[in-house]
Write a structure and sequence with these properties.
With 263 residues, this protein is of the alpha/beta class. The chain has one domain (23-92, 104-256): TIM Barrel (Alpha-Beta Barrel). Helix content is 41%, strand content 14%. The protein has 10 helices and 10 strands. The chain has helices at 3-18, 45-58, 64-69, 89-102, 112-117, 132-140, 161-179, 198-204, 239-245, 248-258, and strands at 26-30, 32-33, 42-43, 60-61, 79-86, 106-110, 144-148, 185-187, 207-209, 228-229. The strands form 3 sheets. Strands 1, 4, 5, 6, 7 and 10 form a 6-stranded parallel β-sheet that branches. A two-stranded parallel ribbon has the order 2-3. The protein has a two-stranded parallel ribbon with strand order 8-9. Strand 5 (79-86), helix 4 (89-102) and strand 6 (106-110) form a beta-alpha-beta unit. The longest helix has 19 residues, at 161-179.
Length: 263
């Protein structure tokens, strides 16, 4: 891990100790497991295994609907929701066997274009998409909640209302056609909220998830649910800190670098 990144995480963890601890369940964002690409959006296999073991022993992992229902309960900050974005094949080949072994529920937010066409979601050979058959097998385990993540994974901040409708409608229709499920939950691509998309999203889905652990929510703002990104550089060392406070200073820095000013 780069020394600068380690320092930011360490200072963020200390800052979180001083700040009021966020309330409500922890929604964790995963993308790839053991991809070997070196991107922050992946985690190493051994780190992922240790993270799951720790969660199974120290937290209650619940599905998204349970988390929403129990959000305002005392001690709800000990509830954890596992979510996987985009639809990478290693979710099935690498992550799913470990999750199934622990019997943990999780949510798949699917970007349907790559799944339908087989086009990689990143560098070829290391970011292959799931197939519908693989998703069906995971769905059959009873552990999976299927969520929407648009069709082409476009940043909705830069689309018209009609284009947003098309992105969401195409994705939802494909999920329903291939899996027999109409998704009730949604995650914004890149974690970026869009004022144009917001009314469309609210009409279509029960909940909508963003990125970044920027806000403490004592009761769920169902269409502005913040999730905590689990990063390659978190490893196992900073995983507990990520859950406790979200490494909020790091999130502030990320937002400034990305130029994101949304919720």
């Amino acid at each position: 891990m780069a020394p600068g990144r380690t320092a930011v995480k360490a200072v963020s963890a200390l800052t979180d100790v001083v700040l009021p601890r966020p309330r409500g369940p922890r929604l964790l964002i995963y993308h790839q497991v053991n991809a070997g690409l070196g991107r922050q959006m992946e985690v190493r296999l051994e780190d992922f295994r240790r993270q799951l073991d720790w969660l199974a022993a120290n937290r209650e992992v619940v599905d998204l609907d349970q988390a929403i229902t129990r959000w305002s309960d005392s001690g709800s900050e000990r509830l954890v929701v596992l979510t996987f974005d985009d639809g990478y094949r290693d979710t099935y080949t690498t992550a799913f066997p470990l999750i199934r072994e622990q019997g943990l529920p999780f949510t798949l937010y699917l970007a349907t274009d790559s799944i339908e066409t087989g086009r990689p979601l990143g560098p070829p050979a290391k970011a292959e998409p799931l197939s519908w058959d693989q998703i069906g097998i995971m769905l059959g385990s009873g552990l999976v909640t299927i969520g929407a993540h648009t069709h082409r994974h476009l940043d909705l901040r830069f689309l018209s209302v009609d284009a947003v409708e098309d992105e969401l409608g195409t994705g939802d229709d494909l999920i329903e056609t291939r899996l027999g499920i109409r998704p009730g939950h949604f995650a914004y691509p890149w974690g970026f909220w869009s004022s144009t998309a917001d009314p469309v999203v609210r009409r279509r889905y029960t909940s909508a998830a963003l990125g970044g652990s920027a806000r403490s929510q004592s009761r769920p703002e169902l269409h502005l649910l913040h999730r905590y990104p689990v990063q390659l550089s978190d490893g196992y060392r900073f995983f507990g800190a990520r859950l406790r406070g979200g490494l909020r200073l790091e999130e502030v820095i990320r937002r400034r670098i990305k130029g994101y000013t949304g919720p």
